[in-house]
């Protein structure tokens, strides 16, 4: 007797139905085979939770299409004159961040985002987080190097110096942030107690506009995170966001810490956390409390010279105060000559692409130019002043680190309170040109059925 050989069955995976398919079988039998493996789609239940502030959750595009890049380069990118040095400015970073936002941004915030006081605030944040990341990396390296060694309590001199530097930088950021909170300088029309935009005096009203304050605050925090992240070459995004939320929201409402995880307290000791964040705020209550920046300005001893940077009729000769003043107020074209590093500000645009991402420049590539080409290039450089300025940007300048305080505390008998023009960094003309471009784009992209009356009034001022 011959044994019956079972017939071989072959199966294929049906991607459209997400199940197995039996070859050579009738449709009914094939469906019976695939029923056990078929995934039935689950109906998504609509949430009953009402979130009135969902529009505040900004979303940013990670990549751009060639058409979007062409549109940005042609219509929205800052134009550089032939005699102007082609360096990266804070306005370039702000233009990229606004262009990457998917959600619509109100004209009111565009006007606020292009105020000089906001530029000083963003510049101070870049300075702070640049030093914050350097200290964080240094602490991680030292902890890894001394992991198998007993701690030396006498070797804490470097941490005391770093803690003092971080405290001064927090005071600098806190001063700029408090100016925005109280409506100082150019931020008064955007204060939550000022309701009548057409009033020449901008007198405070009797009722606070909480929705207006929330709209500006939440958008500013998210935009500031992207500005600092791009300015620091797109590194340590979660670390920057966690610390920024801690500074402006306190630990109780640190949403970035819950989403990204705790990158600091899980691995660092209390001494290292104190170096980065300063002394802890007394935990009295969660609501109706100051965030760490205003708390440090109000309740701790801050050097008055750090809080007086940019104020007219105030002169100082302390090396650290002069360094911070130049880093905060100097024009981007002067940063390279001063030897001060503020992220990618002041660096040549030719070393970066259109979205300010570092390009791979092969410096070791051999020079194939002939003597005729070199002589021609030499005369072209002489004829163009702008080219000469661009050549100077590639010169290597020594980066100066933050110096220590001098021996003289520079105590004064009377503080200057005379009114005067406050110093600002950057170009006011570039801010005004960019503001008009982004307002025109926002009005073009806005829905015809929606009219932001407050924003239109702000743009008419």
UniProtKB/TrEMBL annotation:
<dbReference type="InterPro" id="IPR026142">
    <property type="entry name" value="Pro_pase_1_reg_su_36"/>
</dbReference>
<dbReference type="Pfam" id="PF14895">
    <property type="entry name" value="PPPI_inhib"/>
</dbReference>
<protein>
    <submittedName>
        <fullName>Uncharacterized protein LOC107218101</fullName>
    </submittedName>
</protein>
């Amino acid at each position: 007797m011959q044994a019956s050989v079972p017939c071989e069955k072959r199966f294929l995976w049906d991607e459209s139905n997400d199940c197995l398919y039996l070859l050579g079988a009738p449709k009914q039998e094939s469906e019976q085979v695939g029923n056990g493996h078929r995934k039935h789609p689950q109906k998504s239940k609509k949430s009953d939770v009402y979130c009135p502030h969902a529009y505040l959750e900004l979303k940013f595009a990670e990549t751009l299409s060639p058409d979007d890049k062409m549109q940005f380069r042609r219509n929205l990118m800052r134009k550089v004159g032939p005699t102007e040095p082609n360096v990266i400015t804070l306005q370039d970073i702000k233009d990229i961040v606004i262009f990457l936002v998917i959600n619509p941004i109100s004209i009111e915030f565009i006007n606020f985002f292009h105020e000089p006081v906001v530029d000083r605030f963003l510049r101070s944040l870049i300075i702070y987080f640049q030093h914050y990341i350097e200290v964080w990396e240094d602490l991680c390296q030292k902890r890894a190097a001394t992991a198998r060694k007993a701690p030396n309590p006498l070797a804490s001199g470097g941490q005391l110096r770093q803690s003092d530097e971080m405290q001064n930088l927090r005071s600098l950021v806190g001063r700029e942030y408090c100016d925005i909170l109280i409506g100082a300088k150019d931020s008064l029309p955007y204060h939550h107690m000022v309701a009548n935009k057409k009033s020449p005096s901008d007198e405070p009203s009797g009722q606070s506009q909480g929705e207006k304050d929330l709209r500006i605050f939440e958008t500013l925090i998210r935009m500031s995170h992207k500005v600092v992240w791009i300015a620091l070459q797109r590194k340590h995004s979660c670390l920057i966001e966690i610390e920024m939320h801690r500074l402006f929201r306190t630990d109780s409402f640190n949403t970035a810490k819950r989403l990204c995880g705790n990158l600091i307290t899980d691995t660092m000791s209390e001494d290292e956390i104190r170096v980065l964040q300063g002394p802890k705020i007394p935990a009295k209550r969660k609501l109706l409390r100051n965030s760490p920046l205003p708390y440090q300005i109000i309740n701790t001893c801050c050097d008055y010279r750090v809080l007086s940077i940019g104020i007219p009729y105030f002169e100082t000769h302390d090396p650290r105060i002069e360094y911070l003043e130049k880093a905060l107020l100097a024009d981007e074209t002067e940063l390279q000559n001063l030897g001060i590093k503020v992220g990618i500000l002041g660096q040549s645009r030719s070393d970066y692409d259109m979205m300010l991402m570092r390009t791979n420049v092969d410096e070791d590539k051999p020079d194939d130019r002939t003597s005729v080409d070199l002589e021609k290039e030499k005369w072209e450089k002489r004829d163009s002043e702008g080219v000469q300025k661009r050549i100077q940007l590639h010169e290597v300048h020594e980066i100066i680190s933050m110096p220590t305080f001098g021996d003289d505390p520079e105590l004064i008998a009377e503080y200057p309170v005379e009114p005067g023009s406050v110093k600002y960094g950057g170009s006011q003309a570039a801010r005004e040109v960019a503001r008009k471009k982004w307002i025109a784009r926002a009005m073009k992209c806005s829905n015809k059925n929606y009219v932001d009356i407050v924003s239109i009034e702000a743009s008419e001022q």
